Amino acid sequence: MIEAGIIGGAGYTAGELIRILLRHPEVNLNFVYSTSQPGKPVAQVHQDLLGETDLKFSGEINKEADVVFLCLGHGNSKKFLAENQFSENTKIVDLSTDFRMAANDHSFVYGLPEFHKEKISNADYIANPGCFATAISLAVLPLAQKNLLKDELHINAVTGATGAGTSLSSTTHFTWRDNNFSAYKSFEHQHLNEIGQSLKMLQEDYSADVNFIPNRGNFSRGIHATAYTSFSGSPEDAQKIYNEAYSDAAFTFVVDEDLHLKQVVNTNKCLIKLQKFGNKLLVTSIIDNLLKGASGQAVQNMNLMFGLDEKLGLDLKASYF
């Protein structure tokens, strides 16, 4: 069994990780470390787990764990690893932004399985992609892979309230978020850096603008992203490119149906739809921000790192109701 630990156990992504790992057939959840909740039952914070586990939050870490997931606030993973040493055999999956840019630490592999499966399988340290970056990268990277991005990219994406984490702010209170919609960090969102990095890795000469407008939706979870750019090929050409790109993808599917979030919420899936309008290709991409955009993808990466079927423990089902 893989002995797993979670650092920063009280947040949304940690809650999803706990739920998945408790049911994973090859994992024993060894500890869930939290500085704010030590000694408290995990199910008291993550109440969907009531009746399922007697695990308590720990104030100590197991330095010999086989894999550790870092669910800390951005900037805190680097600090934690500088202050806490794990075994040389411990694998690490970081869910923050701290190691996503290649310049930050070359030992961390960017964990987007659809495009880096071999590197992930041989890695000891994974930088798990951001939620917006996952949805958007999966929407546009097949074009970059074929050197077919010839123009600016225009992206509009909406995320649910859980994308902001558990810390309260003026824009996460129910009275503000309910029946409301707003844009934020237009053209400046932090995930633009990792999207740009991924594009350059596949199409080195791409230098056009990536115009990204992120939005807050009045729902709890999920990301609905649309991206469009110039494309001279036919709809059939686009379909072939994307089908080839995701022919062996475990969770990413190119579909013909119109997309909506209930098709992916509570799953590790990414669904993609292609449409051609004049000389523009419109790509729609949907994911669950807490699963394919965070914890589900983290477990998918862990499976690859340990030579397991990447789907193991991730047979999560969407529910319309």
From TrEMBL:
Domain Semialdehyde dehydrogenase NAD-binding stretches? 3-123
**What are its GO cellular component terms?**
cytoplasm
Q: Which InterPro entries match?
A: AGPR (IPR050085), AGPR_AS (IPR023013), AGPR_dimerisation_dom (IPR058924), AGPR_type-1 (IPR000706), NAD(P)-bd_dom_sf (IPR036291), Semialdehyde_DH_NAD-bd (IPR000534)
Which of UniProt's keywords are assigned here? Answer: Amino-acid biosynthesis, Arginine biosynthesis, Cytoplasm, NADP, Oxidoreductase
Q: Does the keyword Amino-acid biosynthesis apply?
A: yes
User: What GO molecular function annotations does the UniProt record carry, in alphabetical order?
Assistant: N-acetyl-gamma-glutamyl-phosphate reductase activity; NAD binding; NADP+ binding
This protein's source sits in the domain of life called Bacteria
The entry's active site is 131
The signal peptide here is none
Q: What subcellular locations does the record give?
A: Cytoplasm
The function of this protein is: Catalyzes the NADPH-dependent reduction of N-acetyl-5-glutamyl phosphate to yield N-acetyl-L-glutamate 5-semialdehyde.
Q: Which NCBIfam families match?
A: argC
Q: What is this protein called?
A: N-acetyl-gamma-glutamyl-phosphate reductase
Q: Which gene encodes it?
A: argC
